[in-house]
Amino acid sequence: MKTGDATDNADGVPGIVGLAVFAQMVFDQEDLNPVWNSLVEAASNTPPDAGAILNMSMMLMLTGQMEPALELQDQALSMTRLFRRIHGNGRGLRILAIVTPGDLMANTPLDFLLNGSDATVDYVYVTPDGDLPEYIPDHDVAFFAIGESTANFPTLLQIAPAIAA
User: Fold this and answer.
1) Spatial distance between the Cα atoms of 27 and 105, rounded to a whole number of angstroms
2) In the Cβ-directed half-sphere of 17, how many Cα atoms lie within 13 Å?
3) Single pTM value for the model
4) Which of 16, 88, 98, 148 could form a Cys-Cys staple with 118, CB 3.0–4.6 A?
5) Of 57, 53, 82, the residue nearest 67 (C-alpha)
6) pLDDT tens for residues 85-127?
7) DSSP per residue, 89-103
8) DSSP secondary structure of 72-90
9) Measured in whole angstroms, how far is the alpha carbon of residue 111 from the centre of its chain?
């Protein structure tokens, strides 16, 4: 299994495995240790692989370890706020998913919805003050995935002008 590779994409966007893959592994009660060890190794590289760190965060969330998961998510997002998930051969629809940091309920579970497709999804994380990264990859469609919740309400208010533009 490919666990994330910052050099995977020509434009340098870190790759991620995705929540759906890890959720299936947990559901199937697979041994997560080999994948975890591979992610730790990639995260320990110089420079660290932000995609591997975000993958580690997803694995911890799925196993109920929310506090360390959110700490790793913050670490990955301090390195970059753009991550790429390639479904299938990746030659299908190019989707820009606008997401926010948080737990499993913070965003629409787009990874599950696209399972089995050939889409490429670029996840762009907005900050709580509504700031988008400077670089936004080319895409066919943008999907606003931030869930409406009390926790996300300040971010939703702040991002509204940028989305309208």
Assistant:
1) 18
2) 24
3) 0.90
4) 88
5) 57
6) 999 999 999 999 999 999 999 999 999 999 999 999 999 999 8
7) TS-S-EEEEEE-SSS
8) HHHHHHHH-SEEEEE-TTS
9) 9
